[in-house]
Amino acid sequence: MEAYMTAKEAAEYLKLAERTLVRLAHEGKIPGVKIGGQWRFRRALLDEYLDTLAAQSVSTSGGATAQIIDSPLDEILSVKQIIPNLEATDRTEVIHTMVTHVTKLGLVKEQAWLEAALAARERLVPTAVPEGVAFLHARRRAADMFPKQFIAMARSEDGVDWGSPDMGKTRIFFLLALRNDTLHVRWLSRMAWIVRSPGRLAELTEAKSAKALFEALLDGANALPKSLKPTGQPIGR
User: Fold this and answer.
1) Which of 52, 77, 111, 141 is the most exposed place for a label (fewest CB within 10 A)?
2) Domain harbouring 26, CATH code
């Protein structure tokens, strides 16, 4: 497994002041996790963050901005997109089950492509974070593969080994299929904030149905700080 970088090492890698890096990580703008009260960072995720910044720079340097809306959670997640009792026991089964589910809902054009893209992303570095949560996504947004952008969720009662930094099993899986890099980073930050909120993870673990899981996530989305709330406005690449 790839070793984690300290805040000092990550700050040097990104050419940022360490206090700036920690603030951005706390705000969910740079991917990092807290282990034993200290921020830790994976180089592969920092590289992905830099790729996103580069894409944003290109998109604002000229040309028309794509009309992709920063919509609220209830417009990209529904009860039908939640699997409350995931029976998969390994990484391949989790990916296959979740992608099959959203494909049947008409959210994916090519099931095989998405399964391969998710598996490739996990081989790069696992998307699991401490406390039993993973955020599945493809490195390439490939908006043409999705009739609409969406987030899906699945919950495993027993948990699955997913390469979590705390070595624990992962029970909550989010599949993010946003249509550009900017929205992907924003929703990754939002969902991470929601599950980090006190008591929210317990709600998601104990909810009895897909509807209850959906309502818990909406409550979390409604409590997002102003800086993370969806704007309802078009957003570029």
Assistant:
1) 111
2) 1.10.1660
